[in-house]
Design brief:
Layout: E1 9-11, E2 14-16, E3 21-23, H1 24-41, H2 55-63, H3 67-86
Antiparallel strand pairs: 1-2, 2-3
Length: 87
């Protein structure tokens, strides 16, 4: 899978991305803001699957158009199913 990060070009005290020209200080400040915002507002979950044991599952996950939405929908369906059981 290719990275979608913009390539950074460093020239003296400026950092240039595809869409903007930044001073080094402004870029570092913005980068710190992005890291802080992500830490406060998002949560990452990681799983490790064996190619040998879970190959079919890996293929299925990779065939999904949007894996994050697929997992979200599975979780929501399971939550609804479990809520109806508890009542």
């Amino acid at each position: 899978m290719k990275s979608t990060k913009p390539k950074l070009i460093k020239k003296r005290n400026k950092v240039i991305t595809q869409s903007r020209s930044w001073t080094k200080e402004a870029f570092e400040s913005y980068r710190e803001y992005q890291i802080r915002y992500t830490r406060e507002n998002y949560r990452t979950f990681t799983i490790r699957l064996s190619r040998e044991k879970d190959g079919d599952l890996i293929e299925w996950f990779e065939s999904q158009e949007n894996f994050a939405n697929y997992i979200r929908e599975l979780g929501l369906k399971d939550m609804k199913k479990n809520k109806s059981r508890k009542k």
